[in-house]
Specification:
Blueprint: H1 3-8, E1 11-14, H2 18-29, E2 34-38, E3 51-52, H3 54-61, H4 67-72, E4 74-76, E5 78-79, E6 88-89, E7 100-102, H5 105-118, E8 122-125, E9 128-135, E10 138-145, E11 148-156, E12 159-161, E13 165-166, E14 180-181
Parallel strand pairs: 1-2, 1-12, 2-8
Antiparallel strand pairs: 3-7, 4-7, 5-6, 9-10, 10-11, 13-14
Helix pairs in contact: 2-5
Length: 185
Amino acid sequence: MRESEAMEQSVVIVGGGPTGSWLACELRVAGVPTVVLERDPGIDPRSRALTVHPRTIETLALRDAHRDLLAEGGRIPSGHFAVLDERLDFRGLDTDFPFTLTIPQARTTELLRRRALGLGADLRRGHRVTDCAETGDGVAVSVEGPDGAAGGRRRSRIVSGTPYRCGHGNGQGDGRGNGHRIRTG
């Protein structure tokens, strides 16, 4: 199957961080062909987040996707949140995971990326969405790959991104779009 045909039959996810990788996992479990487009050629080693909270671990556990994270992360039974005077104590929660898990975001991304690949997702690093537009039956996506334009415009059923706005000349998530958010449902 040609690359353009694969994109036309797939859900396109803009952004290959933890959220995009997890969404790819969920879609693949449901049997949905999925392409993840991530502008960065590699995973950024500088973490923006260091913890995974109990309810997130529960969600991952529903798919048995939590074990690698638990094996690598540290467990902290209480934590500071915002400007609260008291620490939050997770031991009182009705959960099998009464702690926050400390693990760098880069590592979380890598573990979820591996899982998505194992489930058959197509993850393309170094691919930047330059434009997208809703059509009557999906979304038209323009992509620039590592070697320049990746075949021009592609059609897809859905584009998901957090955040992503469609618009001419829009870099991935840079907010310069025309203000139309892509529906993800």
